[in-house]
Amino acid sequence: MSVLLGRAREDGRRLIEATFADGANIPAECPLVFDEGFDGELVGLEHEGVVRAACGILPREFETRGETIAIGLIGSVVTDEAFRGRGLGTRLLVAAEEHLRARGCELALLWADDADFYLHRGYDPIGGEDDFELGATAARALPDVDGVRSCTPADATAIHGLYERHPVRVRRSGRETAALLACPGMTTLVAVVEGEVRAYACCGRGRDLAGVVHEWAGPTELVAALVKRHHARAVGAGAEHLVVMTPGRTAELGTRLEAAGARRNTGYLGLAKALSLDGLTRLFDRRLSAQGSAELSAEDSPTIRFHGPSGEGTFDAREALTFLFPPGAIRAEVEALAEGLGLAPGALPLDLFAFGLDSI
Length: 360
Prior knowledge:
This protein is an alpha+beta fold. The chain has three domains: about 100 residues, Gcn5-related N-acetyltransferase (GNAT) (Aminopeptidase, 3-Layer(aba) Sandwich), CATH 3.40.630.30; about 140 residues, Aminopeptidase (3-Layer(aba) Sandwich), CATH 3.40.630; about 70 residues, no CATH class. Helix content is about 30%, strand content about 30%. It has 13 helices and 16 strands. The strands form two sheets. Strands 1, 2, 3, 4, 5, 6, 7, 8, 9, 10, 11, 12 and 13 form a 13-stranded mixed beta sheet that branches. Strands 14-15-16 form a three-stranded antiparallel beta sheet. A hairpin with a 2-residue loop joins strand 2 and strand 3. Helix 9 crosses helix 10. The longest helix has 17 residues. The protein is globular and about 65 Å long.
């Protein structure tokens, strides 16, 4: 039986912490899930009154091209080692999806080391992400600027204002940004011009983002200078290179890094599963506007029926997600399909991205 743990059940927290045996402080790294006053919760499965499987969930609103999409994040998925192989992982995932659906989320999104487990349970890659590998030669080609220093808590308001300028992002409050900036193991540098914070860049957060600049904002040249400083710090700590994460195909920073000689690796944002086909149908219909329409079928296996200016088709849940938010590797193919259906440029597909501070 699933239980919504909230944050009061210490056995759920302990299970998550104990499973990450490398000493990671997961609650401190994910304050929006584990700290009171934020929207996250824990979901777990009990056996004889003890939590044997648990994960964190966090409802979020993603913004893209004037659309706000309710997406539920799932993270820190763990099962007690003595209870593995009994199907608890699958049952836990279903329970997390049910709780997120009840909170109005249209799809679930997660990041996984073992992608196959989730691919076999209805998840597919969505969204675009470009990772740039920055070596010494590329770093030397980036600019130097004065006024670079480490972030202080007093910078949180300015940093949040810069973050909100990203057109494709996860919506969050200034209080949430301040809490995330305090995550352990992360270095945030800011560029100060005429007494004001004009750019920032965050590097490192937990084991998955060690050596990665995963969030940044501000003028491209200032951010590039911060990346250069982060590279110097990484090399000083023994690393051979630094990785910089950017939204797929849309970031001027990526173009600047590539021009400096950084190697681009194109990938996807994360693994997602539709929780509300009705919600996705409405999104399709809004994006079509006067060009066409979309409707949800009433069949035993519901699908979205799509009517465009030059064609029509039927999508199941997995196909709908791929068409709406294609992974970077196939985005050009989806754009060509949308053009073939007669859609106006920019109507579909949509960009979808979350910076590193928003992962759980």
